[in-house]
Amino acid sequence: MTETTGLLIPEYSSTESYYNTWESRIGYRVFLGGTRHFGYYEPGTLWPFPLTPALRRMEDHLHESLDLPPGAKVLDAGCGVGHVALHLAQKGLHVQAIDITPNHAMWAQQEIERRGMQDTVHAQRGDYHSLDFADGVFDGVYTMETLVHSSDPSKAVSEIYRVLKPGGHV
């Protein structure tokens, strides 16, 4: 079961409704392999299939951009079903993942447990507008294509920087 952090969920009913529609679920499954982000394609790519290599390239690009050592503590602010969090945990980061959609947080945690990765990654329901973490606890914070759902991007970014350690990476 996933825990709940300080949520402002009433503002997000349209986001939650969108991700709970059959069209959304089928669309993400069929077109993005269940992942909730797009891929990074090599220059000159004319045919995007299969998608998996491009999705992993995007996640690898994120890992390289964060430029954190193994064991660093990272917040995934808007984890979806946890694919990115799991990928980064496999690369040695310790990931705390949150998502406002209850099903996403639950499915992410179920996959974490299925893979036996509870020591390096954890998913729970949470809201990046109201993070239920102490100041300065994360070495890095990222959000992968979720900030578009923010009702108050300034508040979300303020919260991200609040929980980031001085000198941390975004």
3D structure, described in words:
By secondary structure, the chain is an alpha/beta fold. The protein contains six helices and five strands, in the order αααβαβαββαβ. The chain has helices at residues 13-20, 22-32, 52-66, 83-90, 102-114, 153-163, and strands at 73-77, 94-99, 121-125, 138-142, 164-169. Strands 3-2-1-4-5 form a five-stranded parallel sheet. Helix 5 (102-114) links the parallel strand 2 and strand 3. The relative contact order is 0.19. The model has no long low-confidence stretch (mean pLDDT 84).
Topology:
Elements: H1 13-20, H2 22-32, H3 52-66, E1 73-77, H4 83-90, E2 94-99, H5 102-114, E3 121-125, E4 138-142, H6 153-163, E5 164-169
Parallel strand pairs: 1-2, 1-4, 2-3, 4-5
Keywords:
single chain; 5-stranded parallel β-sheet; 6 helices; 170 residues; 16% strand
Number of strands: 5
Class by alpha and beta content:
alpha/beta
Beta fraction: 15-25%
CA-atom Rg in angstroms: 15 Å
Largest pleated sheet:
5 strands, parallel
Order of helices and strands: HHHEHEHEEHE
- How many individual helices? 6
Main sheet: which strands, in order across? 3-2-1-4-5
Using the alpha-carbon principal axes, give the shape: globular
Question: What share of the residues lie within helices?
Answer: 25-40%
Distance linking N and C termini = 28 Å
What is the mean pLDDT?
84
Poorly predicted runs of 5 or more residues: none
